[in-house]
Structure formats: structure tokens, C-alpha cells
Hints:
CATH topology: Rossmann fold
Low-confidence stretches: none
Number of strands: 7
CATH class: Alpha Beta
Strand order of the largest sheet: 3-2-1-4-5-7-6
Structural class: alpha/beta
CATH architecture: 3-Layer(aba) Sandwich
Order of helices and strands: EHEHEHEHEEHHHE
Shape: globular
Radius of gyration: 17 Å
Largest sheet: 7 strands, mixed
Distance between the termini: 51 Å
Mean pLDDT: 96
Strand content: 15-25%
Amino acid sequence: xxxxxxxxxxxxxxxxxxxxxxxxxxxxxxxxxxxxxxxxxxxxxxxxxxxxxxxxxxxxxxxxxxxxxxxxxxxxxxxxxxxxxxxxxxxxxxxxxxxxxxxxxxxxxxxxxxxxxxxxxxxxxxxxxxxxxxxxxxxxxxxxxxxxxxxxxxxxxxxxxxxxxxxxxxxxxxxxxxxxxxxxxxxxxxxxxxxxxxxxxxxxxxxxxxxxxxxxxxxxxxxxxxxxxxxxxxxxxxxx
Length: 240
């Protein structure tokens, strides 16, 4: 039986979680939490590289991130759909890995797979808790579903930002494992171009999110539910 994971990051394509929340995954892995990744597609429609090469790059990146498990749901690249079949397939993995917290992509996105995946993740997380979905496996519903909204300035203000100042360089190392996708590139996924190398743009965005919580680098997240605070004197980030 697979040991439950604490945190599961789900990305439409290999390299998405590295770009969106790699620093947060490293931070939790360093704390001893069991962190896993599920890529929904093999990236076979990518303009650069191949599915086989991206699988090798994803394995190297997983080692850099320190995750305990990385799987692929093998849905069609550029053709992810939120259907009964795909929800059941994803729910099966959720019931196997039993994560406490799931990170999915932003509800809005340039790539159709990103937008659809955000909805698919939320729906599958709910359905995974239904006992009759699959009588052969025990139901499991994650406590929390988060959306990684890095690079999406058209979205709502982040619910919170994670300080990744001490993990950013390692995050960048994981991103650089995807040389077939990013070496010499000036844009990728939700990262829009400004003429600089993509690696520099990633750094600038992380610095921007970090400034929101008065630290060097950060990663933003959104939740539909309101966050709870019990000790107002422990609240961080100065107003002025």
C-alpha cells in the first residue's frame, strides 16, 4: 500500500509545477513532508523536444525538488477535458496517494489545458471522497485545494504568498532541467515575454511576489475559501 503524501502538486504538463510552485515544494520537502507530483499529460504536443525527452527531464527535476513520487496520468496533451472518465481517473490517483493538500493550476490561463485542469482538479478532489465512486478503493477527499497563480496578473489578488527566498535557486535548478523547453527561450506556458531570457523573467516574477510579503522571493496562491487567523498580533507583513 502506498504511504499517504502530505502535499500533491498537479500540473497539466511536465515542467508546470516547477514553474508555478517549485520553491514551495522544495520548502515542504526540506521540512520532512512527503511531497509528490502528478503530471496530467506527457507533453507530446510541445513544439520543442519530445515526450520521451521531457520524461527524462521531469525525472531529473523531481530529484532536484526532493519529491517522493512523480506520476503521469497520460491524458492527451492540448486535449485535457473535464469529463466523467478523466475525473474518475484522477480521483483514483487521489485515493491512492491520499494527499492532505493539493495544488492545482490557476483557474485562468493562456493554455486551454491549464484552465480545464484547474476545474478538473477541484472536481476530482470532491469526487474522490464519494464512497460509491469505486467500491474497491477507500474514499479520500483532500482538506485543501490551492491554486498556484504565478504569472497570472489577471487573476484575483493572491490569498497568500509563500516565502521561497531560501529555495528559489534550487527551484531555478529544477526548471533548468528542462533544457529542451527553456534553454534560449523567452516565454513558456503562462510566462509572457519581455525580451529577456525566460530564467531571468522567472526570477523577476518571484521577486515581485516576494515584495508583496516583504521578502526576496515568493510564490502566490489563491483559495476560494477565506483563510483563518486566530492571533492578530502574530500577523506578518507590515502595512506601511
